[in-house]
Amino acid sequence: MSPDIQLDPNGGLRHLITTEGLPRALVEQILDTAETFVPTPGTAPKKVPLLRGKTVFNLFFENSTRTRTTFELAGKRLSADVINMDVAHSSRSKGEDDLDTLYTLQAMGADIFAIRHPENGAAARFAAHAAEHVAIINAGDGSHAHPTQALLDVFTIRRHRPDFANLRVAIVGDVRHSRVAHSTIHALRTLGTTDIRVVGPEHFLPDNADTLGVTALGDIAQGLADADVVMGLRIQRERIEGDALAGVDDYHQQFGLTAANLAH
Prior knowledge:
By secondary structure, the protein is an alpha/beta fold. It has ten helices and eight strands. The strands form two sheets. Strands 2-1-3-4 form a four-stranded parallel beta sheet, sandwiched between helices.
């Protein structure tokens, strides 16, 4: 993916495909803006006219309940017209190419697509073929990236532990197959965090730990020692092939949310 595909000529956000390479000032601007939408206790979320007259398509090539619902709620609270596409029962099932779906919906007046897709790089491919006025938001592509979830993760962390430079973060579980973990690592590093540990069985740890800028550990006690933030991941069974799941019967005991592990 071209590093500039996400940004417009003025450095603003054109598409949201990955947290990797986003300027720190832009990430902080997104987090600051999100903060203004958090309702005070006891009040309902506010509705604003920011996207009035715009049409948002939630284009999900993978099943989802929580992510699609939250995109729908967000679009409606910004006053957009929101359409959820059940792609499995669309013309794609008749052999229509993914990009044909994009072109058809663009012609119908789409302004924003939130796209979830099982293939790595799919969101960038859509962005490369989107019309000038159309924005693409990656709602998760394969095991590659999930930038909106990562931004929510660092948003939550910032509300409790705002000093990212001095944070010690442990990400526990199936890091290798987790698009959320990869995106959160990039977001944390952009915000200045240098002590990031990934903890789990060897076949669930990333091969490129050095490139990611993280420390890979197979011992839960060592991984959680003095951690300020612990992020727990489920096993990404739908993205695992071969015998990688062999011998995970005791996975929860070793790396799950247990009293013994919390004691570390």
